[in-house]
Amino acid sequence: MKIGVIGIGEMGGTLARKWSEKGHDVSVANSRGAGAALAFATEVGVQATDIHGAVEGAEVVLLALPFPAAATLPKDLFNRAAGDVVIIDVSNYFPGIRDPHIVEIDVGMPESVWVSQQLGRPIFKAFNSILSYSLAELGKPEGKHGRLAIPVAGDDGRGKQIVMRLINEIGFDPVDGGSLAESWRQEPLTPAYCCDYDADKTRRGLAAAVKGKAPRIRDNEWWDNHRRLFADNPTYGEVHAEQIAVNRTLNPLLGDI
Questions:
Q1: Which single residue of 37, 84, 143, 153 could bond 183 by disulfide (Cβ 3.0 to 4.6 Å)?
Q2: 73: Cα within 13 Å, side-chain hemisphere
Q3: DSSP annotation string for 4-54
């Protein structure tokens, strides 16, 4: 499958590497042009390009950019893309912490619905609810006990099956997260967000989400804990277990308390 990855930080870089290892034809790009992606592309054995090259001819495009960047992408970026290209959004909105406030989202619009409007294309929400360390290090073969799960929200059945297959290939159980309008159920600090759950508990987490509750947790208890955890600039591996413990404690699932 021909996959374009725009953004080669921790999440985009990890997925580009893993999909290339599975035999997919992967191109990578970032906002500074093909030259800026060349060193990474050479290291992992993929093709460096610019953002237009990552989209043209691709069957799947992964957007692994800072959340507000969706509004700054060229308006014609997907003009030459296939009509059925599968666009995956991995971004999360952290207003006042990392990102500027976006009024539409602050009053209730799901984050990926806003991203879809900026692009003028239907998209799928996936990979936003797993930590980069988990994605890089904790994949397991299909059927293995304790395999972690990743939810996928989106409106097209064919596209969702493609995303779910790509998740399964790299060691995780895909879980149907419903429509794009329901993607708020996997946004930051909902019960299914970055808790390293298996498929059953991920489904329970999605079902347990309460509209409007997660932003309050994100902006208060979670942010205080996040600053404490990263005060001494640790690696993600060093604080991974505590990150997971904090997220689970802030949103305990019924029956696990």
A1: 153
A2: 28
A3: EEE--SHHHHHHHHHHHHTT-EEEEE-TT-HHHHHHHHHHHT-EE--HHHH
Candidates 175, 180, 174; CA nearest to 153 is 180
Task: Pull the structure tokens for residue 112.
Answer: 């990926």
Contact between 136 and 14 under an 8 Å Cβ cutoff? The reply is: yes
Copy the structure tokens of residue 206.
């999605």
From residue 241, alpha-carbon distances to 133, 169, 202, 212, 238 in Å are 10, 25, 18, 27, 8
**Do residues 225 and 246 make contact, with C-beta atoms less than 8 angstroms apart?**
yes
Side-chain-facing half-sphere of 205: CA atoms under 13 Å? 34
What DSSP string describes 133-201? HHHHH----TT-TT--EEEEB-S-HHHHHHHHHHHHHTT-EEEE---GGGGGGGSTTSTTSSS---HHH
> How far apart, in whole angstroms, are the C-alpha atoms of residue 111 and residue 67?
9
Name every residue whose Cβ is closer than 8 Å to that of residue 215 and which is 6 or more positions away in sequence.
189
pLDDT in tens, 98-111: 899 999 999 999 99
**What pLDDT, in 10s, does the model give residues 9-62?**
999 999 999 999 999 999 999 877 777 889 999 999 999 999 999 999 999 999
Residue 149, strand partner residues: 173
